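User: Before I run my own analysis I want an independent prediction to cross-check against. Here's the chain; please return only the structure tokens and, at the end, one sentence I can use as a sanity check.
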Amino acid sequence: MKWSTPLTKAIILKRYKRFLADIDLGNKTITAHVPNTGSMQSCWEPNWKCAVSISENPNRKYPHTLELTHNGETWIGVNTANANKLAKIWLTENLLPEITGYTVVIPEKKIGQSRVDFYLEGHPTLPACYVEVKNVTLKLEGKAQFPDSVSERGQKHLRELMEIKKSGLRAAMLFVVQREDVHLFKPAESLDPEYASLLRQAHNSGVEILVYQCRMNLEELSLGRCLPIELN
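Assistant: Structure tokens:
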């Protein structure tokens, strides 16, 4: 996925009110939009390098968007919306070996009172597949972990995937890791033990758990390697 507009290197000074950050562009300080509802733990510190995009929409109060931060080892993708954009490309282009052969990819498929990120159908031999996507940026104990705070919404999604699997369809949880300084994924039990327990239950019930790392640079985000998973 290439950036729609060139990114500008800068320095992040602080994040506040969850969705705002002060950014030093070198010749001036601006306020940027932060498209991330999480804690962003391990994703930024004052004076880290960062990269911002600029919108040409004249109606935006804050035209700059914080896309990446850099901890000295790797770029970290803090725009959570990019995880779904990447997943759509990977699923549509059959880039994930575990989920290939589907001819139809539908985003935001409604099921019951909820929506699942992607619905896949049209495989010649396998049942339809629902795929939920999560953006992973937290690094704890040297490992990629999720979530970065208690996530009741994430818990709900795991319960829904287990019900989908029970109905006879395929169900998958796809974790998109937007940083390259980690080599293993595990649920963040110290931050959300209920989510960790549910992820193990989901795995044991047949929900497919997939973790893919992105290659990160200022030109594009692309598919990296599949990370091993530690559930116990």
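Sanity check: The chain has a mean pLDDT of 95.
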